[in-house]
Amino acid sequence: MTAKALRTWYLVHKWTSLISTVFLLMLCLTGLPLIFHEEIEHTFEPHPELKPLTEQSPKIDYDDVVARALATRPGEVVRFVYWEQDDPLGGVITAPTLVPPPEDGHVQPFDARTGEFFEALPPPGGFMYIMLKLHTDLFMGLPGYLFLGFMGLLLVASLVSGVVVYTPFMRKLDFATVRSQRSSRLKWLDLHNVLGIVTLAWVLVVGVTGVINTLALPILMLWQGGQLAEMTAPYKDAPPLEQLGSLHKAIDTARKAAPDMEVSFVGFPGTQFSSKHHYAVFMRGNTPLTERLLKPALVDAETGELTDMREMPLYVKTLLLSQPLHFGDYGGMPLKIVWALLDIVSIVILASGLYLWLGRRRTPIEKRLAELDSGGLSTEIKA
Amino acid sequence: MRRGLWMIFRWPVALAVLSTFGLLSALLGDGVFDVLSWISLGVPLLLIVIVWMRMPRRPKEPTPK
Question: What is the ipTM of this complex?
Answer without folding.
Answer: 0.90
